[in-house]
Amino acid sequence: MTTADHKPQILAFLAQFFGEHRLAEDEDIFATGFVNSLFVMQLVLFVEGEFGITVEDEDLEIGNFNTVLALDALVTRKRAVGAADRSA
Amino acid sequence: MAIRVQLSPRQAEARAEYESFTREAVVPYADAWDREERIPEAFFKDFAARGYLGAAVPPEYGGGGLDAVTFGLLNEELGRGCSSVRSLVTVHGMASYAVARWGTRGQRESWLPRLATGEAIGAFALTEPGAGSDVKALAATARRTGDGYRLDGEKRWTTFGQRADVYLLFARLDGRETAFLVPRDAPGLTVRPVTGILGTRASMLAELSLDDCRVAEDALLGRPGFGLAAVAATALELGRYSVAWGCVGLAQACLDASLAYAERRETFGVRLRDHQLVQRMIADMATGTAAARLLCQQAGWLRQARSTESLHATWLAKYHASTTAFRSASDAVQVHGAHGCGGEYPVQRYLRDAKVMEIIEGSTELQQATIAESAYHARPQTTVPTGGPTA
Ligand SMILES: Cc1cc2nc3c(=O)[nH]c(=O)nc-3n(C[C@H](O)[C@H](O)[C@H](O)COP(=O)(O)OP(=O)(O)OC[C@H]3O[C@@H](n4cnc5c(N)ncnc54)[C@H](O)[C@@H]3O)c2cc1C
Known about the structure:
Chain A is mainly alpha-helical. In chain A, 51% of the residues lie in helices and 0% in strands. In chain A, helix 1 (7-18) runs antiparallel to helix 2 (39-51).
């Protein structure tokens, strides 16, 4: 379960901000000019709610948020840690 | 009695407690605090002892950990009595909430128990002489030293800056937007009181100067580069939500005052309440206040559900509630005529306070721009012909 592909949900969420633009998985979200000042908070709320993880202060690195691939990796990592914590 | 939908019995009980506290401990003094431009120390103590300062602090750190709607009700009732006291809950809550959300375990353990009891008062220092709505113009700087950071810059309009023990303060570290927790006694920090402000006069505003101000390593909150996008955004979200509810209370106070006055005052042989043009003002106040309350409740439910929609809902609530509060206050003064302009009635204070609400936590114009932009995002992506001119 922790190795699942989260990209379809992430892309579906992001699509609402991008109108006609088709976001590539490795495209820098912040360089597109489509996102406003509320975007990071919306993204944090989305990944937390959708994937049951908690984004913590140490996760606040642009490299965790700037592409679909990076977000997918963040979610996979956080879910693996969460699963390990639960089975410990 | 204001119409309320779907409060749980506990929320209704909490609201009744906040209402009676405001009636007894806030309303009788609010005009004097406004004139004196300060809230007395005894009030801070009483307020803290009741746990109200811990409203935004999680229970595991000694706070009330109120659910979003109950937190809103606290702001509404306080806003009915005194917008400066409500501002205290706002800015102290913003600092507390940011530490709870983005602090390290050490920062949470160090600050939150003190913020919960009011042993430490928190404030929010983002605005600068050259950076208001345009927060990206943030110019204060931070640089790393062997044992912490040195900060330089100027902060303006810091609510309860005169009274705060810790400032959630924003500066650029290596050019990147970064949040810091700056204790009041940090060497190199100067706090100057601001007086003569139009509204929320008792909110003890200050200007801060940071001159090679020394803070320890653990002053950094969150991560460099995320000071605005995550830390300030989290705090401002709570602030906006708190102000929106406060404006519902303020608009309700305008309505209550107008109802009472229009009942008593007679002109041309009838009571004011019998003049249709006065009824128009009262009807608008009543409707606007009820709508603002519903928008706030909607934002509250979505916050509770941690929905991504909560951010947009909070903007709608703040925009509607603050503009309603200002219009209601302007009409309340109108209903009172010359008496509304004097010091005998609180409506002139309501008007001054309401104007501030249209400027802080995102001005009316910024709300309008953001809401309009979101309306485009929310539009269904269909290709139905819309008629009209085409390119
Ligand atoms: C009583 C009070 C308490 C405050 N407390 C705090 C506090 O605790 N902490 C803190 O950090 N700050 C605080 N502030 C500052 C407040 O957040 C700022 O005043 C606010 O962000 C607006 O910035 P500004 O005053 O510099 O106005 P500006 O940004 O200079 O704007 C001036 C006018 O231009 C309009 N405008 C600006 N940009 C646009 C645009 N793009 N499109 C359309 N119109 C635009 C604005 O809406 C406004 O009407 C406080 C202010 C007041 C009055």
